[in-house]
Write the structure tokens for this entry.
Amino acid sequence: MKKQKQKLHERMQSKLHNFKNEQKQKYDLSKRYFASDEEMNEEEFAAKEKLFFLDMLKLIAYLSIFVIIYLLFFR
């Protein structure tokens, strides 16, 4: 019984640790994405530009899909 409790405790600690790491990574990414240009070095600035470019490509792709669906089915 004690072994089961210990294993359960270890699994819960592991899950908590993983969750904290995921949240930290999300925070770091959002901090980098919304940081001002003066606060970043060249690599971080390039990463920010790349993220922005990829977000715009996704937006254009989604909008074009909706336009195609509209033209095919609702015309």
